[in-house]
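re the bet — no i am not wrong, look at it urself. input seq straight from the record:
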Amino acid sequence: MTAHDRIIAPMGSRPAVLQMQSVDKTFNGGVVALRKMSLNVNEGDFISLLGPSGCGKSTALRLIAGLMRPSLGRINWEGGQGKDDLGVVFQEPTLMPWTTVARNVWLPFRLRGQSYNSVKDRIHEVLALVGLEKFADSYPRELSGGMKMRVSIARALVTNPRLILMDEPFAALDEITRQKLNDDLLSLKAKTGATVIFVTHSVFESVFLSDRIMVMAARPGRIIKEIKIDAPYPRGIDWRTSPEYAAVARETSDTLMSTLAPGEVH
């Protein structure tokens, strides 16, 4: 089955992708980043991890990505985790400046020993998905910040992963570019059927993008509330300006503020 063949079932009837079960993460020096963090991820979910700075959102992504191990608890992949299961988008595009857009997107295949020519059709397919088909031979220095981030997203999508992890990918962009990439991301999700875990500090971004928002408490990080958003996809300006959007944003903001100690600013 290709990404384009995926059909996303209604929330609540989707097959499981992974589970975090009572995960703790303690760093050297005794800093407890996460305590009893539990999360169920199902196929087709768009989950935002929302919380104050230092609450362990990025740590949770690194644990899921296998870049570090839990101190306690377990992370279980349904059917086991394979090399094609993950795509990752960081806050910075992390592109190689000395090579072209297409060959930056080739990187995950290159790391597996697959030649450029053997996968070039897939590379150009995913560049078309992110609207960069005409920039395949350009270099990163020739691109805007938003275009560089699209290259990073294309690189994450190119292997058709089961799960995409996105760590504040739009935080450094101006508001207009950020909203445009939010729109583009939902369009890509509709076309590919991707499952996404998205880290953000923005209440408004999380409400626009997600079907589930996990609000996390300040350190030690853990989920204190799950907010489900039933608004159908695709979403656009009508959703952004609706009373329903404003109500969910208010609930989410109130929950987030409740995680902070009196007088604390993040």
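see?? Residues 97-160 form one domain. told u. also The longest strand covers residues 16-26. so pay up
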